[in-house]
Amino acid sequence: MATAWLLQALCTTVLSNGALQARQAGATNNFFLANTTSGTLRGQIVSGPSVPVARFAGIPYVKPPTDFSVSGPLRFKAPVAPDSWTGVRDALGFRDECLQRVGLNDRFRNPNASHSEDCLYLNVYTPTKRTSNAPLPVMVFIHGGGYNAGSGSSYDASYVAAKGVVFVTFEYRLDLFGFLSTEDDTLPGNYGMLDQVAALKWVKNNIAAFGGDPNLVTIAGQSAGSACVSLLTLSPLAKGLFQRAIMESGSALSPWAIEFPGNRMTPRISARLISEAVNCNDLNNSTALLSCLQKADANALLKASLGITVAAQATLINIPRIETTFGFLPDKPSTLLARGQINHVDTLRGFNSDEFGGMIPTFFGKNPPVVTMNVAKQVLRSQTTQFTNLDREDIVNVMKTSFIKDRSTPATIQRGTLDAVDYFVFGAPMVMELAKVVSYVPEKKHYLYQFNYRPSFSKAPQWMSALHGIEMLFLFDVRQQMFTDKGNGPPNAEDIQVSQQIMERWTNFAKTGNPTSTVPNGGATWNQYRSTTPNYLQINSASQEKVLSPNEIINYYRQILDTLQGPSSTPIVPIVG
Asked: How high does pLDDT run on average in the chain?
């Protein structure tokens, strides 16, 4: 690859191979050009990281859902390749976030962001100073937010890119726009998942123009984004589009990750209720219903979806589902895992020690009561509202008997309750999935972690450590002003050390498949997770490698999964640990 684009040249450098081109315009504004399959883009150096990073923002990777294709409107349809343009297109600012639920207090959320249905754009961050001509590893991040909120552009990835990777964030359709389904071939759902596949195809075809290696792509995600990564490792549509995967607090087996038979609100019922709310009343004719829904006001559709979600107390009603029309998820994740129908890639996955801890103050108020078994049952039931009452009772009983064995004091009940919810929502599904992956994909590298660090600025009760999503501050550099400005205050030396450890481990995994770290205290050995030696790394200011005993965790979630989807005909093979 030509190296002229790596220099801050005084004039445009024309490269015959279409690689990134650099131009300095004045003393402070450094612009860069990239030739994509759709046309030339102009990006700009962003301030902050120690290594100069060029950001290309607002790149269309598919046509807007508001456009028409040869087959008609694109709302509730598979994405279509973007139009080309002539000349140079500015990629200097973010585009609208996708229509979504707003109002959450999120460290990454931009309260001034605009939202619209025209939102399918991505952003590329690439270092502009390098020591080699070789293309850089690529990381593609999928944001979380329960499939109905969040934005890729909320994350300033320039600090991670400065570690020597090309980093991509993007938007995908959310809520009903991404997942509405009448459970037939007309409205099969999973449009948001197809957006993710389209973004990965764009990366495959274009990332070399930004100095990235299209054959060394790592996808990463957190929470619902992590479940998306997990689903992509199972989807035949994503085969060959990435070589490594990072999953933070979310699995395809999580009780909220897909539409389960045990859900009391089916996709078809929610689609009918939303349709009636916007006066689309031909409920038994999916073709006519689709035509009506494509003409409905987008904000009215979103309002109807959010209102029905609240009224039904169903938690999430528009989420990924099993379907064979597009074929993104052709069967239950547990069935695909049991058959070994998995994309063979390196994986790194894990969860936080007190994921649900952040919800405790919300659930109880500022003065939590003494945690009795009655209170514990309320907490457990609060996480099962999507299921039928009978299934809820069965699941709560499994959670109580598995994790709240010591009921002698409020402290033991409190700890057991939090562990039960954490393993129900995040930990156990991830361990259960990993057990299958390592048995069917032994030739690849697999790593498991538990993030256990309590930040100096944590406002959680002292008995809690790492809450849901807190590791994201450390991945994107805890020193960023966007974090310190939101009430955290400046990080201390230990916070910075943990942040550097996470950034180094994650980017080293993307580079080599080995999440090593040289950060003092945090540089503990992290061996692969294997069936015979289920190692995991407990990440803290002084990280430690430990050995998991997965049988009890898997048996716990096996009972729950059987409740959600019916008993499996393929048993999980016991693991020695």
From this structure: 89
Residue 143 annotated in active site: no
Question: Of 313, 335, 357, at which residue does a domain stop?
Answer: 335
Indicate the length of the chain as a whole number.
577
- Cα–Cα distance for residue pair 464/353, rounded to 1 Å: 8
**Same-domain check for residues 390 and 289:** no
Task: Count up the domains in the chain and report the number.
Answer: 2
pLDDT score of 15: 29
499 is catalytic: no
Q: Domain residues for 416? A: 368-565
Rounded distance between C-alpha atoms, residue 97 and residue 153, angstroms: 8
Q: Last residue of a domain, which of 289, 315, 335?
A: 335
Are residues 470 and 545 located together in one domain of the fold? yes
Assess whether 433 and 518 both reside in one domain: yes
The answer to whether residue 361 sits within a structural domain is: no
pLDDT at 231 over 90: yes
Selected catalytic residue, list 223, 251, 275, 402 = 223
User: What pLDDT shows up at residue 366?
Assistant: 53
Residue 395 lies in a domain: yes
Q: Are 235 and 342 in contact (CB under 8 A)?
A: no
C-beta atoms surrounding 170 within 10 Å: 26
Please state the rounded mean pLDDT for residues 468-488: 87
CB 122 within 8 A of CB 170: yes
Backbone φ/ψ region at 542: left (φ over 0), alpha (ψ -120 to 50), beta: beta
pTM for this structure?
A: 0.93
Q: Which CA distances in Å does 181 have to 130, 185, 289?
A: 47, 9, 11
CB atoms within 10 A of CB 16: 6
pLDDT band at 129 (very low <50, low <70, confident <90, very high): confident
117, 171, 355, 433: the active-site residue: 355
Of 134-148, 324-338, 558-572, the one with minimum mean pLDDT is: 558-572
Q: Do the Cβ atoms of 33 and 23 come closer than 8 Å?
A: yes
User: 124 pLDDT exceeds 60?
Assistant: yes
Buried b / exposed e along 428-462 (16+ C-beta atoms within 10 A): bbbbbbbbbbbeebeebbbbbbbbbbbbbbbebee
pLDDT band at 369 (very low <50, low <70, confident <90, very high): low
CB 143 within 8 A of CB 221: yes
Has 117 been annotated as catalytic? no
* CATH number of the domain bearing residue 468: 3.40.50.1820
Catalytic residue among 468, 499, 504, 517: 468
pLDDT digits (tens, 9 = 90+) for 276-301: 999 999 999 999 999 999 999 999 99
